Amino acid sequence: MRFSARSHALPASPIRRLEPFAAEAREKGKKIYPLHIGQPDIETPELFFETLRKFDSKTLAYGTSQGDLDLIDRIVEYYAKFGIPIEREDLLVTNGGSEALNFAVSIACDPGDSILVPEPFFPAYAAFAASANAEIRPITTLAEEGFHLPSRGEIEKLIDTSTRAILLSHPGNPTGVVYTEEEVKMLSDIAREHDLLLIADEVYREFVYMDEPYLSFGNIERIRDRLVIVDSVSKRYSACGARIGCLVSKNREFISLGLKYCQARGCSPTLEQLGAAALYETPDSYLSEVNEEYRKRRDILFEGLNGIPGIVCRKPEGAFYIMARLPVDDAEKFIIWMLQEFSVDGETVMAAPAEGFYATPGLGSSEIRMAYVLKEEDLKRAVELLAKGISAYPGRTDR
Ligand SMILES: Cc1ncc(COP(=O)(O)O)c(C=O)c1O
């Protein structure tokens, strides 16, 4: 049987691809500290579960394709707190931020079109672009520059008649970058001048550790007609398994096209939408405590990594990831070796190889991405194991 070339070309997730090696190591009794995936260990607010327990209908029915209006109203109120004026009609509930991204890229691009994406980027972007037969034009950013953007001129050089959109995460996964006001305004101006859609993936909006205030693309009035915000409860409320996200846009044509995708997939899960509506009632103190916790973890991981000879990394400004260049021949080989060959007292650590976070061939091959989603003692132990692993690894390049 023949399957589509498009499906064959779809990149496998560098975050999940090495899971079989981890499963095998676990089967052999190894304990693995998982730094490869952004699955927070923070508790989901109890309100979510309480709400689900109270559900007493005899039938679990379909909801509307746009999404549960109670949830939509809560999200509208949430945005108002950030000074982002949206109405019910500007919002579509999706099955996680992932589905929102998939729809947004499909709506933006015909086959052969291109989108600008700062690299390294969240690898699902490449999968969604590939499934729309669109090309990612990477805006390469560097650890040495804290993954901030190059000049406007450098970015504009990448634009041609095939370019339809700019897609980015802010705060950034995997870079931890939080774009400055100048950068947010520069990208907004580029989008306006070149008639591009701006897809701002802001699922980490609350995870910012700098003193300067965070500026959402939703706060830039002059791009409201060409802005799509991708959002999710996954990280904000540590509710990754709820699979509830949304698309927000003032562009009514975008929303009406998006609604057709929502209709095709029926609706988002009924129970989880109820739970998500309750999550938006969570007191702000929950978010500030979580922020404080991640700031602490970031400092522990960053300082720990800085103490390992040969590692290059920069302190992330937001989200909960860190990119690090290792003194190894190949990061993926190193991670597999850590799972198969290495352990200290039956323990090892797992990270994500970073090559799949880049579109430019050859970049990222000696880099890993780590998520600081473990508690303090576990993070410290993970760093210790990583240091010992690097020093014992046969493919070390700085000996
Ligand atoms: C930048 C970014 N966007 C979107 C998502 C998707 O989130 P979800 O589909 O769980 O809402 C993730 C998940 O890791 C992410 O890191």
Helical amount among residues, as a percent range?
25-40%
Per the CATH scheme, the topology name of the largest domain is: Aspartate Aminotransferase, domain 2
Give the CATH superfamily of the largest domain.
Type I PLP-dependent aspartate aminotransferase-like (Major domain)
Count of domains: 2
Topology:
Elements: H1 5-9, H2 19-27, E1 31-34, H3 46-54, H4 69-81, E2 91-94, H5 96-108, E3 114-119, H6 124-131, E4 135-140, H7 152-156, E5 163-169, H8 181-193, E6 197-201, E7 227-232, E8 245-249, H9 252-264, H10 270-279, H11 284-306, E9 312-313, E10 321-325, H12 331-340, E11 347-350, E12 352-353, E13 367-371, H13 376-392
Parallel strand pairs: 1-11, 3-4, 3-5, 5-6, 6-7
Antiparallel strand pairs: 2-8, 7-8, 9-10, 10-13, 12-13
Helix pairs in contact: 3-10, 4-10, 5-6, 11-13
Pyridoxal-5'-phosphate binds near residues 97 and 203.
Features:
399 residues; alpha/beta; Aspartate Aminotransferase, domain 1; Aspartate Aminotransferase, domain 2; 2 domains; 4-stranded antiparallel beta sheet; 37% helix; binds pyridoxal-5'-phosphate
